[in-house]
Amino acid sequence: MSSIIVTSASELNADQEDSVFVPLLSPPNSTSQVAIVGSNVCPIESLDYEIFENELFKQDWRSRGKMQIFQYTLMKWLLCFLIGLIVSLVGFCNNLAVENIAGIKFVVTSNMMLESRYGMAFLVFSVSNLILALFASMITAFIAPAAAGSGIPEVKAYLNGVDAPDIFSLRTLVVKIVGSISAVSSSLLVGKAGPMVHTGACIASLLGQGGSKKFGLTWNWLRFFKNDRDRRDLVTCGSAAGIAAAFHAPVGGVLFALEEMASWWRSALLWRSFFTTAVVAIVLRAFIDLCYSGKCGLFGTGGLIMYDVYSETISYDLMDVPAVLALGVIGGLLGSLHNFLLDKVLKIYNLINEKSVAYKICLAWLISIFTSCLLFGLPWLAKCQPCPADTSEACPTIGRSGNYKKFQCPADQFNDLASLIFNTNDDAIRNLFSKGTNDEFQYSSVLIFFVTCFFLSILSYGIVAPAGLFVPVIVTGASYGRFVGMLVGSKSNLNHGLYAVLGAASLLGGSMRMTVSLCVIILELTNNLLLLPLIMVVLLVSKTVADGFNGSIYDLIMKAKGFPYLETHAEPYMRQLSVGDVVRGPLQLFHGIEKVGNIVHVLRTTRHNGFPVIDEPPLSESPILFGDTGGIDASIQFSAGDFAKRGSGNGDKIEDIVLTEEEMEMFIDLHPFTNASPYTVVETMSLAKALMLFREVGLRHLLVIPKLSGRSPVVGILTRHDFMAENILSLHPLLVRSRWKRLRFRFPSLRKLFWGTSASIKA
To answer: What region holds the CBS domain (predicted)?
Structure first.
């Protein structure tokens, strides 16, 4: 019976509507229990970070000796070490595979270009890209749809308390790694940083599951981590390790997890995540030395992302500040426009993807062909330039990465646009960041490259394949930053490569709306601490400008996918409402001594798994919510492990439990299995105050009790869906008009940007 008596929470009250919301296709309805996970619509539920204090928990906790407590503490650090080690190895192999697969493709294509076999070169280039893109799309669509996209919105929602099926499964991990390598190698404008965050989270979650009962692999020494609280900490460390491995930025990884990913943080978690990223940095340092020795394949030291623009002295004065401020403003405007267009494109793609798997594959096929045509065709628009006489690098570059791609040019000349566009994303960024190349690129080439990257990054992200946003945004921002540097010219003391770094920072700030973590990541990427003041200014300006138009890209994607994410702040109208204004019923209750048949019937006819347990006469003088009431010694028949959190596999279902008619007529004492100290709020508490309690404690449900005695001991249950704006405004539609007026007063640009919404409200 332990598998069906669960007091972790309901996502819907018993008689709530049966309609479900299909995200991206209709106005959000936060009362639903579905969201787009990867590329498929899946049921979701909430995690429960609350300590479950029933009789079994108390017995298990009291039985722990000093050795078990020491083992638990030691295992935390050991798991962090393993997470850092495995993620760094995966990150290195990921980068190395991309560089060599793409390298073979460019070498073969370049050799054909040297022989003037341009038609065959395009055929080989486009077909190889198509095969790689279709492979990434097919394994994602057929094996692990949850691996589609960057994975950061899913991981961020998980750390906020939203659980979705298969986001951390073994097959999702494998498809994420293999699919990311294939997608990035196919010359699609997608990145591998987002997939690395998801990969790190998957590795952390799998390590904390304690093995698999399905395959007969169980490790008792990991039994302590079979709960949502400890897995949340491990996943946080895994996401930090993912960024550290993707950008070789250990401190930036910790700050990224703190600023962007985690909804709950404490000093002990800071220590462990820092230790995890330190392991990543040490392992990657060893592999960087290996690459410097020339053992990393075709692209030499290109196997790891590191854009070294170190300079012993960088001189800048007040005359450079206006150009830097302009970069920040432009980055904010472009970032908000990028987010707006990407949100619209994702909605269109979802209309296509929902039809069938064949449509998903066809979409990937079209984007791949379109991308190949642009990458191969646009360099023909650029004029060939003579090789500089003072360059230390071979010119022209033939069949490998470099600043001087030959493409179709004659001997001793190079194609500057091909050096950017007919290259991997990492090498394009290196070329844009490079110093001492102020005369290398033409205005038209950089402008064409910027426009191409801006729109290809939007069109490529929505296909059914692992795809990140970090690197595409960096390369796009670097191109327009370089263009601004070329316009400023000799009027500035900064070289064009440094303007490219500042442009990348401004677009990252305008799109992702992070400041501290992005600043440190860029500094670790470029190895140039002297740029710190300028990067700080650019990030602050770009984020401030972009916040006036829309939210961060990951917040928009989470909302479009339908994740019920709880923000750190409460909306002003929530202070005008009490919890009694949003809680709905009638509520399904259980008695302390309940008939088995009644329990089975309720579990089979409702879609939630949490129910208040009350005692009535003769067990109590009046109906009360069950507290610290004694019962049978359930620890004799059950252990805490029987109620441990399941892994990524499927848990037991009520339909799978077979009971005889005699057993259905029996009664069961629920007291030993019931959380004897649940969090409760009085029905007159403000909704804003209840939201803060719900989010900070990490609850799955919150019981609402009456203010006056003589009524039912429980008024209802609040879940995270009850705190969603769409749910509240659907119950109180008069709040919509006042809320919209406040938004228009704060951000006048919203009236023009979302005129359709304004018109619908007026109607």
So the answer is: 673-734
